Amino acid sequence: MKFFIDTANLREIEEAHDLGVLDGVTTNPSLMAKEGIKGKSAILAHYKAICDITDGDVSAEVISTDLEGMIREGEELVKIDPKIVVKIPMIKEGVKAISYFTKKGIRTNCTLVFSGGQALLAAKAGATYVSPFIGRLDDISFDGMDLIHQIRTVYDNYGYETQILAASIRHTIHIMKCAEVGADVITSPLSSIMGLLNHPLTTSGLEKFISDAQKLNL
Ligand code: G3P
At what angle do helices 40-53 and 10-19 cross, to 10 degrees? Predict the structure, then answer.
């Protein structure tokens, strides 16, 4: 399973990269706004800075909701760096844009996916990635993991190559459930990735080894 980090914060991307487990980055307009990035040239420069840190794919989201606008933005975004994947919302014009980019060999990430039907459409349009938002489903009392499971089954039934990129990850259990169900990728805040490290028996076991090592007169 690939690990993407879901942030536009360069320090967090560097920290995940330094851990040696980072396979890519996803961003969205909310995450860019959180970093205080303003203006088109600053946004494009920020995407380039992200691409310079990671070796993997970087999802950059279009803001337009009409087909022409999405195509114009997407074509501009992919000129930044070969790692850029155009992130497109799951709306009617978005499906058309994904089909357009697929025919041109431009990679896409279909975002804001909340149902199996939406994921099926994204795959038929040729999306490289589909992003089901599991945390936001959990927030409204639907089990986000059920959706990951359903999409896995549907894609496997027909051999769709679209990768399931589980998004809106809120904690380490989400990551581990995604691994069990067979998501291709998780995109997660740094805190949830780092949370995988923790176990109290590791902490206490290491303390004991260190204190016993001091008796060895090394
Ligand atoms: O990649 C989508 C993700 O950023 C949404 O996460 O926590 O805002 O639901 P969240």
Answer: 10
Is 40 annotated in the active site? Answer: no
Strands in the chain per DSSP E: 2-6, 24-26, 57-61, 84-89, 108-113, 129-132, 163-166, 185-188
Give the binding-site residues of ligand 1, using a 6 Å CB cut-off. 6, 26, 28, 131, 133, 135-136, 167-168, 187
> From the CA of 133, how far away is ligand 1's center (Å)?
7
- Alpha-carbon span 154 to 85, nearest angstrom: 23
pTM of the model: 0.96
Q: What is the pLDDT of residues 107-133, one digit of tens each?
A: 999 999 999 999 999 999 999 999 999
> What are the pLDDT digits (tens) for 78-93?
999 999 999 999 999 9
Measured in whole angstroms, how far is the alpha carbon of residue 32 from the centre of its chain?
14
